[in-house]
């Protein structure tokens, strides 16, 4: 399955993540999942919301740099070894993983994966 | 009389010689600080018989003007002065310029002629966003455009949204402002929900007052759908219109009014065509504040002969990439902001014109930080892409200047452009 993700550039000044969340909250956008990739100077805040396009426009209008992109989403069972099977397929086909994180909604867990080759990855998990 | 833009070498020389002889006589009689210099150098007005004798004369510097603030260099009584301008003082104390009625007419004529190099006619509507006031940009552009017969919209700087509205509603065909402000307007149109570039009728841009790279020029032309021309001037010599781009690589100097030379800034010797040095100007007809062999501190080259693009014989100069004052010395290496700007504006993942250089000294070593904005269209969700871009920028800038700076990638809006001249360097080192 494919899932759409919103990414926002957050320079390392106090309150930036709060500002992003406040803009979304004030406009009734619900964040289902978030994480931040951090470096010395900046972070990339990645989120799944219930309306990514609306969120993208709101954030851009408020001076934030943001984009959306598609990730692979794979459902996994809550037991050891389930994710391994999926990752082996990718590794065998030499598909690289840029980043990976988990996402839970309504008692189901998916693993979200950004790969360097969305089309091939899509075929693999069918 | 034959058109002064297409004279032969001898015809121009004859005009310049007659004018220089009169200007030197006038200066010797009326401008004490320069008479003192001539006396010290044992030169008399009679020693100047032609334009070639100009090399006998002493130089005038910005320091001389500052020492004689406010009116020490005025060569006529205040009764004859009808305008006073002051330079923007980007490198220190203000210097003042006084103009008589005839000085203003000459300056207006120089600007009007400059407009015609770009193909501007009385049918054009000129939107002027240069600052009106003590700065010579606004008023110089205004009177020159008016004299040509254009319909002038005197906007000055600021209130970008309203400027966009007027540009659209009035259908201006020519935009006159600093290159920074042209980009501010272009970016405002891009971001606007109300306008697209097709709403505007601009065809020509006439930009100057600060150095700007060819990369920035290309961005402006692409975003505004215009042909951009460089106009050059300095308030000490009159204002904008001292020289103007004809559409090719070079700018033609109005050398019947302002005589140019290139000198080696160390030895003060004259340099031949095609060799870079400091631009020196002598006013040939001024009454208010004539200046003889004024050292501009701008670096460029001169080229005599017929222009291959427009056929004019007015002497040509390069676009001024830098003023020697703009130069930074970092760990013993000469660095010009324009070199860095050139490298940055070539990288599409950046908004390369939005940059700021910060120089510090930590202990014994100078450090250079280049802050530059990311282009939102290329924003990536992976750290890897941003790190790769940073390395690319580091590599390009290091290749351009020979030392490795720290690169700080900034979000849009963190490094804004000015409505006027954008400050490009912050030097925090204590001398």
Descriptive account of the structure:
The complex is a heterodimer of chains A (126) and B (431). Chain A is α+β, with helices and mostly antiparallel strands and 126 residues long. Helices cover 31% and strands 43% of the residues of chain A. Chain A is built from four helices and six strands. Chain A has a six-stranded antiparallel β-sheet, with helices on both faces. In chain A, a hairpin with a 3-residue loop joins β2 and β3 (42-49). The termini of chain A are close together. The mean pLDDT of chain A is 91. With 431 residues, chain B is α/β, with parallel strands linked by helices. Chain B is 30% helix and 25% strand. Chain B has helices spanning 9-30, 32-40, 62-67, 101-117, 136-148, 160-170, 179-191, 214-224, 337-345, 383-401; strands at residues 81-86, 96-100, 125-128, 151-154, 174-177, 204-207, 227-233, 240-245, 251-253, 258-263, 277-283, 294-300, 302-303, 316-317, 322-323, 328-330, 333-335, 350-362, 365-374, 406-410, 425-427. In chain B, the strands form five sheets. Chain B has a nine-stranded mixed β-sheet, sandwiched between helices. A four-stranded antiparallel β-sheet of chain B has the order 10-11-12-15. In chain B, α4 (101-117) packs across α5 (136-148), α7 (179-191) packs parallel to α8 (214-224) and α9 (337-345) crosses α10. The longest helix of chain B is centred in the first third of the chain and has 22 residues, at 9-30. Classes of the chains: A alpha+beta (126), B alpha/beta (431). The interface between A and B is medium-sized, with 20 and 17 residues.
């Amino acid at each position: 399955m494919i899932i759409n993700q919103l990414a926002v550039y957050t320079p390392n000044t106090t309150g930036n993540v709060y500002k992003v969340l406040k803009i979304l909250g004030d406009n009734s956008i619900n964040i289902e999942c978030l994480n931040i990739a951090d470096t010395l100077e900046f972070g990339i805040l990645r989120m799944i919301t219930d309306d990514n396009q609306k969120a993208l426009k709101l954030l851009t209008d408020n001076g934030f740099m943001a984009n959306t992109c598609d990730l692979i989403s794979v459902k996994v069972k809550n037991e050891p070894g389930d994710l391994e099977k999926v990752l082996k397929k990718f590794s065998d086909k030499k598909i690289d993983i840029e980043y990976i994180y988990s996402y839970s909604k309504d008692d189901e867990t998916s693993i979200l994966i950004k790969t360097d080759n969305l089309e091939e990855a899509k075929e693999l998990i069918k | 009389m034959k058109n002064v833009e297409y004279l032969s070498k001898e015809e121009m020389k004859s005009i310049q010689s007659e004018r220089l002889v009169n200007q030197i006589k006038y200066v010797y009689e009326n401008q004490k600080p320069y008479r003192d210099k001539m006396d010290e150098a044992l030169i008399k007005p009679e020693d100047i018989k032609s334009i070639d004798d100009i090399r006998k004369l002493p130089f005038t510097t910005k320091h001389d003007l500052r020492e004689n603030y406010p009116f020490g260099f005025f060569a006529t009584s205040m009764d004859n002065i009808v305008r006073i301008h002051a330079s923007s003082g980007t490198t220190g104390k203000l210097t003042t310029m006084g103009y008589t009625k005839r000085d203003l007419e000459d300056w207006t004529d120089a600007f009007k002629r400059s407009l015609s190099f770009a193909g501007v006619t009385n049918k054009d509507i000129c939107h002027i966003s240069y600052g009106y006031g003590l700065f010579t940009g606004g008023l110089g552009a205004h009177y020159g455009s008016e004299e040509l017969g254009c319909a002038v919209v005197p906007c000055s700087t600021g209130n970008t949204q309203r400027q966009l509205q007027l540009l659209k509603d009035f259908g201006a065909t020519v935009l006159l402002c600093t290159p920074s402000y042209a980009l501010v307007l272009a970016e405002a149109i891009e971001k606007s929900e109300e306008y697209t570039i097709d709403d505007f009728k601009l065809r020509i841009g006439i930009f100057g007052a600060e150095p700007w790279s060819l990369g920035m020029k290309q961005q402006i032309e692409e975003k505004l759908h215009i042909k951009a021309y460089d106009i050059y001037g300095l308030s000490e010599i009159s204002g904008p219109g001292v020289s103007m781009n004809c559409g090719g690589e070079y700018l033609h100097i109005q050398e019947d009014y302002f005589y140019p030379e290139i000198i080696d800034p160390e030895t003060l010797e004259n340099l031949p065509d095609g060799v870079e040095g400091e631009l020196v100007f002598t006013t040939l007809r001024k009454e208010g504040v004539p200046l003889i062999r004024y050292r501009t501190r701008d670096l460029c080259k001169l080229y005599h002969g017929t222009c291959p693009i427009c056929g004019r014989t007015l002497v040509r100069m390069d676009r001024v990439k830098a003023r020697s004052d703009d130069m930074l010395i970092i760990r013993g290496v000469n660095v010009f902001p324009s070199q860095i700007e050139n490298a940055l504006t070539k990288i599409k993942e950046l908004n390369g014109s939005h940059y700021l250089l910060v120089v510090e000294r930590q202990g014994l070593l100078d450090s250079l930080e280049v802050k530059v904005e990311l282009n939102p269209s290329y924003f990536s969700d992976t750290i890897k892409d941003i790190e790769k871009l940073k390395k690319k920028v580091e590599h390009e800038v290091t290749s351009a200047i020979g030392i490795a700076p720290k690169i700080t990638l900034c979000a849009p809006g963190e490094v804004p452009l000015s409505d006027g001249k954008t400050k490009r360097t912050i030097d925090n080192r204590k001398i």
